[in-house]
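TL;DR need structure tokens for one chain.
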Amino acid sequence: MAETPRASVVIPTYRREALLRNLIESLNRQKTSYMYDVTVVGDGTEVDAESIGVGSMDMPVEFVSIPEKVGRGAARNAGITASAGGIIIFLDDDMTVVETFIEEHMKRHTAQNTVVIGDVKSPPEYAGHSLARYIERQGVRKLKSRDYIPPKCFRTGNASVSRALLEKAGMFDEAIIHYGEDMDLAAKLADAGAEFVFAEDAAAYHHHPPDLDDMLVKMREYGKYTVPVLAERHPYLKTTLRIHLAEPARPGREPLALTLKKMGLRLVLTSPVYGLILAAMQFSPPDSLIFPMYDYVRAYNYITEYWKEKRYQARKRRRERGAYDITQ
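>> reply
TL;DR here they are.
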């Protein structure tokens, strides 16, 4: 008889003891038939176990402290290495989970190549905020059909992967220290044969106040630092991220529809249009209108930053080639 797998919950954290304590307490209330433990990784900070109150908890909790901040990917790798479970469940430190969270994740791991994507919800206190409602409807919830779940829906805010598959995929790339490291891992998991499934009942509540400025800062960071890496490493993601439309139009050398899409994208991703959309959002339009606006402003920020970075790197290469030619 096959041995029942054990789960290890890996949580990177940075100076959010109150939120972390709430998460740990929700994990301690789990109703499950599976064995599980928790590994908390202080990324550039030391976590005070006493302040979290783990002494009175039934589940094993291990704390790993990294003296200097290394980023989410490296912190999660450290947590995976320090943990013992065959199934790794990823959570962020500003979440709480339902009582059947572990059970719902674990029972879906019927094969080594299964990757489970849990549901991320907004807590009741944010129900009146359109951005919270928008975020809640992203990922798997945005799909018209769940017969096939693409890697782009994978988010380490709530997901689980077998240790064997993580090792086969190469774990997190620790060189990616900016937002979007989970997209790279998702692509590597897919390349390693992963099958992504959605566990709606494995729900986590995200206790992060909805903040449009914060989201757009992350999108700019994503476009400048991470998207160029993704595009080079996983070329098919250019289409997923729509950055293939940022390539120069080639009339006559590509399908007319593609040329028109490229021209249309360059037209709408301009400062005047962006400013107009931001202004319109201040009037709190209904979800049917503001959700596409959120889509637009997110895309504007990461795609324009990607364009800027591509142009900068191209100029840099030209200068380097010029300097090299002069020395010959």
